[in-house]
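To: structure subgroup
Subject: Chain for Friday's discussion

All,

I'm putting the inputs and outputs inline so they're searchable in the archive.
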Amino acid sequence: MARQIVSVKTVVAIGIGAALVFVLMRFVALPSGVPNTNLNLGIAVLSVFAAVFGPVAGLLIGFIAHTLTDLTFGFGVWWTWVIADALYGLIIGIFWKLYNVEEGEFGGKQAVIFNIVQIAANALAWVVIAPTLDVLVYQEPSDKVYLQGLVAGGLNALVVLILGTILLVGYSKTRVKAGSLKAE
């Protein structure tokens, strides 16, 4: 029997996660004051899905949701930022086993680990990758895109720190802790 790479549960999570992140990115984004840069609540949902379902889910949710968002705005797909969102989801998901969300053990230690990872992933994705690719691929002015990246990365890190952590704590509390059931 062939080994299954992605479970049915993860495929369903990718579909639901991409839809939720798309709706939040497209219809609930708040302008930041920097052109083409928004306060994005969808990043918290992407982070939660990546933390629960792992790197494949994080990568695909980020890729699909950002692509659909760009397509519906009508200004074309900015592949450099799609790649950054996908890589962000991948990085969060790589460390999913450290967060212990599914085990119902997402506490203070796991929240600190999660937030260190997400802050580093946001810095890498938005302060380094997206603007650098914008300069290389689209020949955008570096001062403009690095400002956009810095603002996006900072806002994303803040949103995930607050909303993402709250969502993960809440979701973790719905999970049954290993060894919590006793035989009578």
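Points worth raising on Friday:
Residues 8-173 form a domain with the Arp2/3 complex 21 kDa subunit ARPC3 fold (CATH 1.10.1760.20).
The chain has one domain: 8-173.

D.
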